[in-house]
Each structure stands twice: as C-alpha cells, then as structure tokens.
Amino acid sequence: MKSFLALLPFLMLATTVRAEQVVAAISHPSVEISSSFEGETLTLFGNIEGGDGGPSPYEVAVVVTGPLETVTVWEKARIFGIWSNTEASSFSSVPSFLQILSSRPLEQIAAQDRLLELYLRPEAYLVPADGGTKAARRYGGELIRLMREEGRHGLRENAVLFLSDSLYKARLDIPSHASPGPYVAQTYIFRDGEVVARKTDGFSVRKVGFERFLAQASTRTPLIYGVVSVLLALAIGWLGGVIFRR
Amino acid sequence: MNIYLPIAELSANIFFLAGMGGAVGFLSGLFGVGGGFLLTPLLIFSGVPTSVAVASVTGQVVAASTSGALTHYRRGGVDLHLAAYLVATSIVGAMIGVAVFGHLSQTGQLDLFIALGFLVLLGTVGTLMLTESVRSLLKQHQGVILRKRQTSQHNWIHGLPWRVRFRKSRLYISVIPVLVIGLFIGFVGALLGIGGGFIMVPALVYLLRVPGSVVIGTSLAQVVAMMGVTTILHAVQSQSVDIMLALSLMVGGTIGAQFGASAGQRLRGEQLRGLLALLILAVAIRFGVSLVIPPASLFSLTWS
C-alpha cells in the first residue's frame, strides 16, 4: 500500500504528461584518467521532440552527480592559543561532484519547493548523519560553500544553450581532482514551471592503463605495492650514486 | 607538463615536483641530511593531502639515503651491529607511529599533530644547533682551540646495564639508550615522514659517543632500513603511498643531492651547521605561525 502511495504522484503525472519527449546524449561515455589527465570537458546535448510548439519556450536544467561519499565537516576553535578541529558533523551519501546547469536562472524556471524535490538545489543532497539538528543545518551551509571552493559543486544558470527552439547543448567541465566512479546526468525539460520531460544518462570517470593498475595495486595488494615501492626507491638511490659518483 | 598522481587523485606539474625534489635534494646534499623534514612540509603547504605527503616522502627518503649509505658502507663507515639494534626498535616505533597516524587521520587531528610535531622537533633541534654553532664560531674568532671530545669519555648513559660490545664503533655500552633512540626515531619518522638523521646523528655523537668515522654511515644505513619498512607499513595501513609522486621527487632529489654535495665541500663545518640550523628554525616558525594565526576558513572537509 505504502509503495503504491509513493507511486501515486508518478501515475498522476503520467496521465497529465504532454507528448514531449527528450532525446539526450553525452559526448563521452566515459572519462579516462591517464597519466596526462588534466580534466575533461564533456558536451551534453539533446532534442525535445513531440511538442506542440506552444507559446512559452522550453527550459532545461541538468544536474550531474558524481559518486556518493560520506563527508565530515570540521570546525576549528582556538584551544590554548592553537587552532584545532574541535567539532564535526558528518553527512552520508553526498555526491563528491555536483554540477547544476540550466538555461535560465533556476528560480525563473520553477518554484523553490519543486527544485528541492527534483534535487536541483544542493541542500537536497545533505542528509545529516545525526538528524536535522540546528548545528547540522549550519554545517550543511558550510559544506556547500566548501564544495564550491574545492571545485566540487557549481551552479551555472546560463550553461544550457538552445541552438533552436528544441535543440540544446551544455558544456560540462570535469576537473582533474574528480573522484573516479559512476556519474549521473539527470535532465529535466520545463515548460511553464512544470516538468514536461526527463531523462537520465550516465557516464563513468575511471583511471585507465598504468594509473588504474597502480590504484588497484595499492588497495588490492598493498603489501606487494609497498615492497615494490621500496625496491624502486632502493634502485633509484643506487643508480643515482652509480651515475654521479663514478 | 602535468602528471596525474593516482593515489593523491590530483594532477600536478611534474617540473614543479621534480624541482622541489631537486631543491630539497641540493640542501640535503649540502648539509648531509635526508631532507624529509623540508619535503613533507613543502608538499603539505602546496596542497598535497597530508597523509599522502607523509607516506610518499617516506619512500623518497629511502632513495635519498641509499646512495650515501652504500658509499659509506664501501668505505667501512657503517657499524652494522649498532645499526641492527637501532633498526630493530625503530621498526617497533614505526609501527606505533603508523597506528597513531591512522588514528589521528580518522579523528581529524592529523594536520594539527603533524604541525605540532614539526614545531617542537625542529624548534628544539634548530635552537640547539644554532647556539652550538654560534658558540663555536665565536670561540674560533677569539682564537680558542677547540679540543674534540674523546670517544673514551664517559657519561651517565654508559653506566646503564646490559652492555654490548660494538667493535666498529669501539664502544662497550648499554643497549638501553640505543634501543630508546631507535624507538623514538622510528615513531617520529613514521608520524612526520622524516628520516630523522638530524636527530640521530647528534644522539649518536653526544649520547653514545660514536666516533665520527662511522656516525653518518650508520645513521644512513639505519634510515634506509627503517624508512623502507615504514613505507611498506604506510602502504598497508593508510594506502597513501603515491608512487608517481615519490618517483618525481626521487628523480629531482637524486640529481639535486649531487650538486649539493659538491657545493658543501666549499663551506666550513660550523658555517654549514649554522645555516642548517637557520633553515630548520624557519620551517619550525612556519608551522608555529600556521597554528596560531586565525585560519582563512574555520571549516574544512574530509571525504571518505
């Protein structure tokens, strides 16, 4: 019964949904991290089909999320004249990368509550591990600010460009420090503040070749990785002595 | 040209890393120290995660000390018997150090304790070295001839039980101070990512009266063995040894050390020690300042 109630809004939506459909794709199915990786720029593009060409234009919002991680926000305080981490609050399942791209300022596209429901606001992702206390809300604000500073979160409200009434594209920058893992791009097509079509696409960010080999070795066979690292260091030290001293 | 560091998960300029390794290598060749106490702070200050910086520099110190240790060994300047005792307890110290490192990392206190550790250690050693070298420079200036301490001179440490004969060092001393020195260096080295040569050498000279001919070689041999084991411990425990980072530093460091060593031959011992003391104090002050001034942001994140 409960699951049926949860499904109810979607069923109702299905009956009211108009004929629009979005065909979307991402320029790269995967972002490959090799030794020369300095970040990558992806293009998201799509076409809105089956519309009746009504009076008001379509608006597009895309939210791209990286692998979910647990993050701890630390607060420093002065103890005996020294600044140290004293208080902390943890948030579980926070996307390590969160980009929100849209064709217009979001508040002009839909109401705040609706944006929050659709996970188009960063606050939607913050689930405090210790419940919704006042402190957790304060830390949540800091978390979003720090994620923006670290280049993990961005809101670009003019990133989606319409090439025609129905054809759009958007540029997405993946920074070099992006966490490897599955990424999800959720696209919403709005008209008059309502979602008329949606689509989910995915891509992966993964280490390839030697970088992949090293990263796997360091976690799967850490002992061998450590021993080989030491042997390598000994060899380089010895070689340096041979080359320069003789 | 950028290189992706697979464990640190960030991209860094390879020339910047090799240049930093080279500059520190030059100084380490100049002063005859490992250089870990400069390299770890530099990496931390330039944005490498603290745990990756410490663990990777540990690997770099192995490379930096190997060629020196081999050279001294060929000249007969290594007391393997003494080094074995030091290594044995330094490994125990390193195990405790790596465990404490992991615990501090989880509780968000790693950066604080590393800064405090460097401040106390470098501040103390730097001050001691500076006063000592200023005093000897002044005495030379006044024309006083300094008589070198004899290895036969004894202090209270030599009265402790469990005495062992170390032939090469011409010592018949208690193993207790030897084991305690090893334990301390192992702990500090694992926690701060330093070889600890700048603590080991004075400890061997002033506390144990190890003769000058075997001090440096024995200390270097001990550093190679201890830091080798510590690297493996870090790789297993915190999995934060970034071999690409360590390699970039090693290449620069090995080359820089050669130039440093030849430059060092043109400077006098007291001057060198005075300069090294100033350098050590500068790093200590940098850490001290970072602890006391209000941080740019009161908040920070750790991802897991």
Tally the helices of chain B: what do you get? 10
The stretches of 5 or more residues of chain B where confidence is low (pLDDT under 50) are: none
Distance separating the two termini of chain B: 29 Å
Main beta sheet of chain B, described? 2 strands, antiparallel
Query: What is the average of the pLDDT values of chain A?
Result: 85
Helix content of chain A: 25-40%
- The topology string of helices and strands of chain A comes to HEEEEEEEHHEHEEEEEHH
Nearest-integer average pLDDT of chain B: 84
Q: How would you name the oligomeric state of the polypeptide chains in this document?
A: heterodimer
Number of strands of chain A: 13
Radius of gyration of chain A: 23 Å
Assign the CATH architecture of the largest domain in chain A.
Answer: Sandwich
- The total tally of domains of chain B equals 1
Strand order of the largest sheet of chain B: 1-2
Index terms:
heterodimer; A: Immunoglobulin-like; four-stranded antiparallel β-sheet; 31% helix; B: 304 residues; mainly alpha; two-stranded antiparallel ribbon; globular
